[in-house]
Amino acid sequence: MTFNDNARVGGNTAKRRGGTVAAVGGGAVGLGAIVVLLISAFTGTDLTGLLSGGAPAAPQSGGEAIANCSTGQDANNDDTCRLAAATLSIDQFWQERLDGYREPQLIIVDQATSSACGTASNATGPFYCPPDETVYVDPTFFSILREQYDTTAGPLAQLYVLAHEYGHHVQNLTGVMQEYPNNGTGPDSNGVRTELQADCYAGAWVAAAGEQVDENGTPYLQPPTDQQISDALAAAAAVGDDHIQAEAGQVTNPESFTHGSSEQRTRWFDAGRQGGVNACDTFSIAGSSL
């Protein structure tokens, strides 16, 4: 997805934090480490301990503003600025649709930093942490998608990841996380339903992303192209439980699912894109319909 070059994005509140290298140990190397990363991706559950074996540090605060990120052109030229700038559009989207919406914090992770959910690092991938209402993203995650999972992870795929995590924030604000807590794994588990709803919310934002405007009335983003939509769908498919298991050389086991299959993730993303937020009820339907 492309920003309009003259859109003003300097009002974003994203911060960069970290700088401590996250150790990767415990025998999890190569594909094993990547699988842990992808299972951790798009969730509020931190799995750093599986890689490093260390206890999480106390949450940090503060951080540095994202430098050289004031226009849409800056966002088009830099992954970090693109993520920071997109928060303005996503926040505006939800402010228009959810009474009482409050903005989460976005932390761009530089190698590793601590959170209320554990360590955010280049090993855990993007996640939302409910206790501190913060989204953590290490942009190197997109390089991993490109190199290991045969997806381009272009601009819209990156923003799909971000919008998905903001979907978890909405679930936290609306009480979905409290009403449907973790009840284990499985194809119709609360975890799968939660993840598919966040995919759907991301699709709803993508469809409306060209409507959010800066203080001058300039749209932040241009409507997505068909190729960009395909790229985002490929990113959703790359983190389906069945695809992750296949990449790990495992037989597909739906009873171990925590996020949904590749087909489900792409279908619910598209459901939101076609039907908006109101099409995203993944909790009142039968598991066979997910």
Structural write-up:
- With 290 residues, the chain is an alpha/beta fold.
- Helix content is 43%, strand content 9%.
- It contains 11 helices and 7 strands.
- The chain has helices spanning 31-40, 48-52, 72-77, 79-95, 140-148, 155-174, 176-179, 190-208, 226-238, 241-247, 262-275; strands at 15-18, 64-65, 105-110, 112-115, 118-121, 127-129, 134-137.
Largest pleated sheet: 5 strands, mixed
Summing up helix and strand content along with how strands pair, one would put the structural category as: alpha/beta
Would you report the number of β strands?
7
Mean pLDDT value: 84
**What string, H for helix and E for strand, traces the elements in order?**
EHHEHHEEEEEHHHHHHH
- Give the strand order of the largest sheet, numbering strands 1, 2, ... along the chain: 2-1-3-7-6
Task: Enumerate how many helices there are, as a single number.
Answer: 11
- What coarse outline follows from CA principal-axis ratios? globular
Rounded Rg: 18 Å
* Uncertain segments: 21-58
Rounded to the nearest angstrom, the distance between the terminal CA atoms is 28 Å
Sheet-strand content, in percent, reads 5-15%
